[in-house]
Amino acid sequence: MGVNSNRVEDSSSPSNNNTNETIIRISSELSTRQTMEIHNVCLPPQKTTCQKLKHRLSEIFFPDDPLHRFKNQEWCKKLLLGLQFFFPIFQWGPQYNLNLLRSDVISGLTIASLAIPQGISYAKLANLPPIVGLYSSFVPPLIYSILGSSKHLGVGPVSIASLVMGSMLQEAVSYTQDPILYLKLAFTATFFAGVFQASLGLLRLGFIIDFLSKATLIGFMAGAAVIVSLQQLKGLLGIVHFTTKMQFIPVMSSVFSHRDEWSWQTVVLGFSFLVFLLTTRHISMTKPKLFWLSAAAPLTSVILSTLLVFCIKSKAHGISIIGHLPKGLNPPSSNMLYFNGAFLAVAVKTGLVTGILSLTEGIAVGRTFASLKNYQVDGNKEMMAIGFMNMAGSCTSCYVTTGSFSRSAVNYNAGAQTAVSNIVMASAVLVTLLFLMPLFYYTPNVILGAIIITAVIGLIDYQSAYKLWKVDKLDFIACLCSFFGVLFISVPLGLAIAVAISVFKILLHVTRPNTVVLGNIAGTQIYHSLSRYRNALRVSSFLILAVESPIYFANSTYLQDRILRWVHEEEEWIKANNGSILKCIILDITAVTAIDTSGIDMVRELRKMLEKRSLQLVLVNPVGSVMEKLHQSKVLESFRLNGLYLTVAEAVSDISSLWKAHA
Amino acid sequence: MGVNSNRVEDSSSPSNNNTNETIIRISSELSTRQTMEIHNVCLPPQKTTCQKLKHRLSEIFFPDDPLHRFKNQEWCKKLLLGLQFFFPIFQWGPQYNLNLLRSDVISGLTIASLAIPQGISYAKLANLPPIVGLYSSFVPPLIYSILGSSKHLGVGPVSIASLVMGSMLQEAVSYTQDPILYLKLAFTATFFAGVFQASLGLLRLGFIIDFLSKATLIGFMAGAAVIVSLQQLKGLLGIVHFTTKMQFIPVMSSVFSHRDEWSWQTVVLGFSFLVFLLTTRHISMTKPKLFWLSAAAPLTSVILSTLLVFCIKSKAHGISIIGHLPKGLNPPSSNMLYFNGAFLAVAVKTGLVTGILSLTEGIAVGRTFASLKNYQVDGNKEMMAIGFMNMAGSCTSCYVTTGSFSRSAVNYNAGAQTAVSNIVMASAVLVTLLFLMPLFYYTPNVILGAIIITAVIGLIDYQSAYKLWKVDKLDFIACLCSFFGVLFISVPLGLAIAVAISVFKILLHVTRPNTVVLGNIAGTQIYHSLSRYRNALRVSSFLILAVESPIYFANSTYLQDRILRWVHEEEEWIKANNGSILKCIILDITAVTAIDTSGIDMVRELRKMLEKRSLQLVLVNPVGSVMEKLHQSKVLESFRLNGLYLTVAEAVSDISSLWKAHA
Fold it and tell me: How near does any CA of chain A get to the CA of B84, in Å?
């Protein structure tokens, strides 16, 4: 490496010793500046390509180092840990006691009172028979209680996944025309959703759901809530002939073109219960202690409205009721899975979209409550739990389920301690399925609409959207796009647009990175932005620039132009102010966390161009990976001595002392 | 802002004064450390949303500040500058003299001798009549010499754009079956390429071509060169029935399934001239002074082979010749533009792809030679020049042209001084078109194949590919993908895959950013990576982490997990080594150049989780935009006093002095 070798130390070579690493230059001419130690910039410890690949892959797939508990353990201890790893119930099961059980029974019964009307309502949202919603509140919670690592997650069908499944399947097959095929497709979609979720967990690709940013989700949920609420106008107004489309415009035109079908009995019944439900919800929100009010309200409404309709049944012809529901446990449905045929693609697509959406909700809800109680949920393990629960569900007449936000919140507030609350809820649903189904005969459909609206209205989080606007305009735009995309185009496309905008935002930041001129904060070794710190001072003869982004193909041309423009502007400023002539450009590349081959070419090119103008280019504080690439590409050699420093202060001190020595 | 207000200064408020900005804490208990000034972290100067938007937009679209020359100028001076801005010929024209002219005439004639055979060959590559290649070497260079800002760019048809146009149009229409339609589509594609290029320049969207990274282009050019060379096997072997497909497999099977059509005369003639051309190329490459050898070789080969075929014409039936070429200038072709009909989409698509490819080559070549002679070419202006040249070309029987690498290299080596060399070349082509066309009657097609192979073989840059492998494995993968994508799938898809991989690489860096544990370099205020600097020491009771990436939705979950894992590992290390208990986590966020709302939530969440474990979280050195967002989202308030410092050294010094004071 020639002259370079005494500045760039290969720290992996054993012959190095520590005393070599510090070069102390004492210049007798230095009067204003103190003598300063100059430190070498080291290369990171050398690694083979294989080691690097291993490190990179382990950071991508195993950032949480899931096997660290297994290290240095005995064989049988390892077995136990492995069992606990795959079945968290073995972790908390042995410590289970009566106290915990009491809390879990109370919370379990509370969520059951919510789960039964919700199950029926959400199934209707997915255009499925109401009973499927109840089936889905029985098997999946049992499986989750064995596999899941969250203590507070309340499992069951959720509004968004139900809506999306309903809208996507309805486009291919109509439930009213071919109910068997529709059911088959729903179970198949559930199966694929489960397979997709479990394989994301198994392949440790859980980070994919991180690409649905919070901003995207806020917009998406609000859009979905509006769509769902509008769909309920069918039930609330008593309209018989309703569009099967989900977008805003066809739904609204459908509502108003069938004004003759509006039934006043339905409207009165529906809106009075809606007001009741919204009031209890409002009370619970303002006084968290009264959470049971909103938790019990749906079941109360169902009971009251059913009694009401039962009493006036002879006069209430305008009010549509649920009617006969079959008694009995979940029938097996593995024979209804549909693996070849014209609609397979629809089922797979629906499975993927509902799978990723329900996964996002489940993981986010699990994380939220875990952080409130200060324990960890393992994202990849949760994915497997949710995935297996859906795969099992698809064979037992259940549709897509996940951790539901409303159920989990009620569960948490009711004092759930472990996943046993899910078992209690499942038992309550079991009793309902076996004995109480005939009681729902007179339940009016309109009440289900009111329950759904009350549930989804909480998804419209306008306060968060306003915060987005205040803090980050581009995030707000992503949010708006997903809102309007879902409302006017379609659910998957709306989501895709929002993800694309989020990614575009990252690229925009990379394409046009910030460059900042630094100055010295008087009396210190600190160099900081001139425009931000008024006590930062220009250092004469130097132009100190900080580049605030990795240098990639996407920005190398821009950065080169921008740096040259800074030089040009600095020279003009000097001319106008009679300053001392510019001699050295210092690039502080602390924040350049990566560089690619285009970036390296840019640095090489820039150095050449500045050299032609008799300007020296100095790099300061490259991070490990950048240093390595500069070294491998032999660009470092062109920087030789006095081209690379550890801090800006050292660079300024050393170079100006050299100038004085040569003067 | 409560307690916070004396640490976070709003630097835009006029009541601030400088003395306020420095808080000096002198702790009497400090024995090991010197008293240290503690500096405030400032907010950047306040800007309205509108100002920010303006700044952002001007950085995106006007990073080069093209209007700075117009500032503070008189009215008529402004007019002159504007004229010079749009027509660079007014800039260098007035200083033009005889000396410059002599150089330009020599270089112009040199490139003409290359341009004539190249024009004919490349037109054949695009499945166009050979004469179109000559037309394309006449009008566009004239227009470029008025509009272009590069002094060395040699303008004309290029191999890649010709190949892509040929392959994309051939898939829709066969030239042999419907030559008029094919010609129409070619001119229409040229027109759209020009419109696209000019509008990229006008809308200042030139940065789009930056997304074709160097790695992508290396792979793409090599793939295209292989495809082009294989296509020439048709001519070199004398095959009559050849596939119209461009991919590797159909071409190779076509070559070997028509072995009966191979003609030995053609093979002998072709390969002997190929050897001649490659030899001259090799000589010129090893001895740059003999550049004229490779520049003159194509014309020499054409003349020699034509004479040869003319002499043995009675015996050489196996050798196909160019035949009759019409004499005369470019006929107008604006009536052949095709704006409605079934093939419009093909023409537009071809225009876009060839437009962006030829633009990339033109800009890259222009920049390369400009940097060799240390002048600047304006990317957006070049785009407009190339765009207008193609739009004019499409109306005068020309197809897509741009700055050609081979021509420009010859031009540069022959001593070109200004764009006048392009005018000289165009004049030479004019003479050829008017008087010399019959001379090409006996030129064998095989010689054109040999010329094309020699030209494109230089595009296979295996040395650069090897460098990519050494410096950046992911860049190398992008390169390989574009190579194999072009070779086996198709040109646009190969390019799209390569761009997607390049973008994925950026996202990967963001999704899994580096976190580094810092230590103090003994005797200094410098904190640096423990694993990289062996003289960096752990600071007891502190864990100092540097985050090397913006914090976005895509990595906030990962970063939270990773930081908690660092804390966990540190605590285990302390337990094993009986170190002093961990009390404070310092996050050095110098390299966190941006943050979004998910990132802010992560910071808030992390602080809460650490607080529950009685660990303090401290942020060090947020950049301006991050500071602003932390402030707007009110996260800063939760950091209150002792939660935000300008440097790691100040944070460590201040916090440990506080501990001692409380002890």
Answer: 20
